[in-house]
Design brief:
412 residues, six-stranded antiparallel beta barrel, 6 helices, 11% helix, disordered N terminus
Length: 412
Amino acid sequence: MKAAYGKKIGRTIAGMALSAAIAVGAFNVGYGMKEGVYEVKAAAAVTAGEEREYVRTSLTSEARQNLDSYSDVYKAVENAVVSISVSAQIQAQQQFSYFNMPWNQGGIVSQGEGSGVIFNEDADSIYIVTNYHVVEGATTCSISLDDETLVQAGYIGGDAITDIAVISVKKTDLAEAGVSGYSVAAFGDSDKMEIGDQVMAVGNANGDGKSATNGIVSAKDRQVSIDNTVYSAIQTNAAINQGNSGGALVNMRGEVIGINAAKLSSSSVEGVGYAIPSNTVAEIVSHVMESEGEQRPVLGISGYTLEYGEGTDYTSLGLPESGVIVAEITDNTTAQYIGLKEGDIIVSFNGTAIKNMERLKELIENTNTGDSVEIQVARVTYNRTPFGSSVSGAQNITLSGEMRTYSSGPSF
């Protein structure tokens, strides 16, 4: 399976880039903030009132004994971890000099590589959990168990806020491709992991196929922000490389205790990776599988926390001290209907001042479909040239309307 190599994607935090661990060509993963919706394309049928355990968990932390070696740990999950290949039609971007924000132009087809973990099966299909950013915007998706044979996958649903998605593969397609020997992973209790516990990261590192790295739990409940989405994560020093997104973080019992998501990239930082805890994964997966179309309201923007360069005289231009710059508007969403425009700076949401993207996201999550919202923005006038842009001024305006749901996500 051909690997896709490319630049590391990520936001700079205190001089360090926190990047999603997906191997990319020009595949721009999770660029900006999409404020998330439980997007469900085809959920499994569930009888009303029926409780179902979608993620297979051990009965207690003592139910399984520690395995003798890292080799045994890898063998316990090897056939439950898959390599994922995606393709997408994406928009190219260039940088605006004044706010260091992207502007869309043109479009290209690109490839990406990630990982996934088989968490369930039924008579017809196997079900795989991965990161939402691995499949976001994808138009095709395939998985491989042996790093050679690709089998087409379908999108079930996902949640951009928690960065969890579910895909499925038909057993008839696996059989036609001659693929067998897969297994369903056992998930452990991430709350019972302790700092210093040994772990192994398994995934499609660099798009080269499945591999493993070992380390320890470095920290628990670490609050990290990836593309302005805040995660409570397990920190580990097990190497999480490009292409490991969606792969398994495994304890010494061979149980999955996290889904690998990101790493810190800096010349001054080594051995800092993050995984979404298995208990969070189990909760989101269950919701996705049972939602059957239930959706959260969304605003429908990608954006960035407003940051000025040192010495910038923003007051003379009538610009706000803080806010969120709207980089992109999604069609047929709340943002489009109320009249938000790319380049607007959101300064308040329902009367609450907006200091950063995290705060805006929190306020959006607390709304319901049909709620009336009022958004104060500074509408910026840009002087654009082939070499960048400058700002000539801004006008303060108020926009209002009702929160709407939106169905988007991958189209495979």
